[in-house]
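Protocol step 4 of 5: obtain the predicted structure for the target chain.
Materials: sequence only (see below). No template structures provided, no constraints applied. The aim of this step is simply to have a reference model before the mutagenesis design in step 5. Sequence pasted as it appears in the construct record:
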Amino acid sequence: MISSSTVVNSVVEKLRAALARGQWRSGDMLPGQRELAEQLGISRPSLREAVIVLETLGLVRSMPGKGVVVLEAPLDEAQSSDSVAGASLEDVLQLRYTLEPFIVGLVAQSISSKEVGQLRLTLMDMREALEAGDSEAGVNAYIAFHEELFTLTSNPIFQNVVQQTSNALKQSAQILRNSPEHLAERLEENEAVVRAIRNKNSALASAEMRRHILQEGQRMGIELNIPDDHLGPNAS
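Step 4 output (C-alpha cells):
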C-alpha cells in the first residue's frame, strides 16, 4: 500500500514539474481544489498537504477566499535549472542512461494499477498528438511521461538528482521538436517500458529503457560511450 507521504511527495514533484514547464506562470491561480485533485487522481487532503509543501518552497501562496497563486521561482530554483546549461546532448543522454533504467526497475516493483493507468494516459496524449500531427504536444507528452516516471521514485536522496535529470530532459526538448518524424518510435519504445512495468518485470523495464535511450542517441546522431557490461541483447 502506498503511504500518504509517498502520495504527497509524488504530487509535489508533479506540480513542481508543471510549474517549471510553464503550465501555470507567476500570478496565475491554480485550479480549484476539487478540479485539481480530480486531475491528479488524489484526495483533497493529500492535495492540501502538497500545497503546504509548495508554500514552504516559496512556489505558491494560499490566499483565503481566492485560492492558490503561483509565485516567481526562488533564485535557488532558477540556479538548479541553469546548472545543466553547459551540458552537451551526450552528457544529457549519459545521465538519463545511468538513472532512468534504475528508476523504472524500482517503479516496476511497487507501482499501483492507478499509477500505471496515469502513465498510460500520458502515452495516450502522445498518441493523440502523433495522430493529429501536433509535434509540440507530442514533445510535451513525451517529457511529461518521463517526469511522471521520475516522481514515482520514493527514495528522498534521488529527488535532487531526479530534478537534474528532468532539467536535462527539457534541455534536449528542442532536438525532439526538430525531429517530429521520430515521435512514433519514441511512443512505441515508451509503450514497451510501460508494458514491462505493468507486468512487474523489473529487469525488462530497465532493459527497455536502456534500449530507448540508446535509440534516442542514434536518432540524434550520438553514439553513447557505455560500459560494455551494460550492452546486453536487450539494450541494443
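Step 4 remarks: Confidence is low (pLDDT under 50) at residues 75-85, 232-236. The domain at 83-228 is CATH 1.20.120.530 (Four Helix Bundle (Hemerythrin (Met), subunit A)).
Proceed to step 5.
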